[in-house]
């Protein structure tokens, strides 16, 4: 069960100290794409990643929901499932779980104390100091490969794919949900370039499942899969779904794939985009059944899909007043949110509070949202890359003039004050929505649920 070294002269005395050391690196070192530091880390840790079966999931939107579907179904089938996701919504330990339970503080502390001298050693080389995300990725691999030994690890990329630290693993199956306008300052300024970064997780001979469409750079995914001799299962080609019914908190669809047809597949998450995410998850599970003899009975498949919850995505966090949280923060996410607001929810007036990071495509986001809202409350996440609420307001006013539309705009830089404005405006038949960066969603969710501030980190 345990291969951890004794660390009598431990660097950190508590899990909180260890976590503070990890997340403190974000502001100091930022994001450092590349795999050389990860390769060295894994080598010095004895390659724990080689003992695990990873399901590697990339994509601009939908990867978190797809991971949630996969984890829920595999657990329902009786498998032990590790998950690594980012960013977390409440606590740092949320990002590495087994069967839905966070890594324990004492285990985290022992693992970080084991890793710390190796991190310091690498920092002295020409490769430089490992980043926050690299250490978090290595910590998750140590936890799964040295302590928990789950049957499968659902493994979400952080950013892009090709140079993302999660790409250190050789998975049993690869998933690319979609490609959209996000992180283009890092991944490239065209969808083809972004698609090429996502396609970087495709490995030789490892099957690939994707819902990437032709206008999102599908040909890039197809060419990469062909070059790597990786069988491609693509939505609209090898598999499809048909919407059977969509009601609040209950949708169903018929799935057809190369191996079989499944009728009346149920999910509880809302929005048309969740049918796509669920269909991608079902195709992934079908590949696991065919290639790796993974046992997935229909009863467990339905139970797992219907039981999937994904906090912060079309999540009704309060009923009096009605407050919906949704982490849409790019144009494609805003399009999905707008579609759901028009088809799933009813309201007299719509009041939307949003806060963004400075690096995002705010124009594309606002074009989808502004036609629907009665009040727009602009605020700022409590995060070092926060977008200026006043600049967002200027942009929104310009776009509204173009649309010949009048919307009341409120600028409140303090998000807690903004939340008070939002709740005070929302009457019985109205709907309040908090949207934008997950750093804001995380804070609002913790505040409404527990009246406490969330931890913060990638």
């Amino acid at each position: 069960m345990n291969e951890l070294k004794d660390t009598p002269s431990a660097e950190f005395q508590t899990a909180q100290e260890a976590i503070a050391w990890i997340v403190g690196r974000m502001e100091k070192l930022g994001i450092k794409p590349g795999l050389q530091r990860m390769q060295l880390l894994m080598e010095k840790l004895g390659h724990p990643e080689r003992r695990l079966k990873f399901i590697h999931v990339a994509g601009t939107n939908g990867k978190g929901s797809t991971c949630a579907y996969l984890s829920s179904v595999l657990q329902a089938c009786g498998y032990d499932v590790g998950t690594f996701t980012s960013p977390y919504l409440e606590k740092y330990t949320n990002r590495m779980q087994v069967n839905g339970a966070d890594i324990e503080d004492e285990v985290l502390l022992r693992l970080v104390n084991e890793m710390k001298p190796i991190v310091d050693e690498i920092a002295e080389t020409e490769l430089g100091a490992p980043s926050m995300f690299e250490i978090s990725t290595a910590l998750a691999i140590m936890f799964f490969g040295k302590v928990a030994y789950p049957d499968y690890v659902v493994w979400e990329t952080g950013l892009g794919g090709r140079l993302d630290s999660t790409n250190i693993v050789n998975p049993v199956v690869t998933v690319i949900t979609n490609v959209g306008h996000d992180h283009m300052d890092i991944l490239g300024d065209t969808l083809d370039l972004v698609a090429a970064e996502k396609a970087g997780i495709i490995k030789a001979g490892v099957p690939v499942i994707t819902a990437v469409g032709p206008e999102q750079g599908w040909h890039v995914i197809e060419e990469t899969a062909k070059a790597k001799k990786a069988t491609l299962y693509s939505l609209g080609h090898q598999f499809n779904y048909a919407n059977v019914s969509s009601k609040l908190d209950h949708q169903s669809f018929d799935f057809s794939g190369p191996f079989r047809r499944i009728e009346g597949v149920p999910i509880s998450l809302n929005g048309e985009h969740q049918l796509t995410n669920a269909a991608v998850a079902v195709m992934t599970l079908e590949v696991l059944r065919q290639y790796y003899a993974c046992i997935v009975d229909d009863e467990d498949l339905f139970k797992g899909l219907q039981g999937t919850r994904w906090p912060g995505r079309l999540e009704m966090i309060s009923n009096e007043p009605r407050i919906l949280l949704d982490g849409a923060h790019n144009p494609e996410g805003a399009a999905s949110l707008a579609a759901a607001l028009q088809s799933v929810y009813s309201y007299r007036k719509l009041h939307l509070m949003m806060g963004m990071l400075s690096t995002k495509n705010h124009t594309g986001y606002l074009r989808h949202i502004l036609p629907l809202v009665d009040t727009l409350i602009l605020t700022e996440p409590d995060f070092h890359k926060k977008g200026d609420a006043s600049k967002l307001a200027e942009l929104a006013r310009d776009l509204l003039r173009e649309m010949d539309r009048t919307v009341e705009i409120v600028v409140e830089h303090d998000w807690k004050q903004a939340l008070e404005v939002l709740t005070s405006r929302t009457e019985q038949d109205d709907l309040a929505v908090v949207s934008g960066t997950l750093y804001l969603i995380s804070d609002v969710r913790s505040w409404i649920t527990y009246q406490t501030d969330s931890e913060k980190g990638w």
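The first helix runs from residue 15 to 29. The chain has a mean pLDDT of 92.
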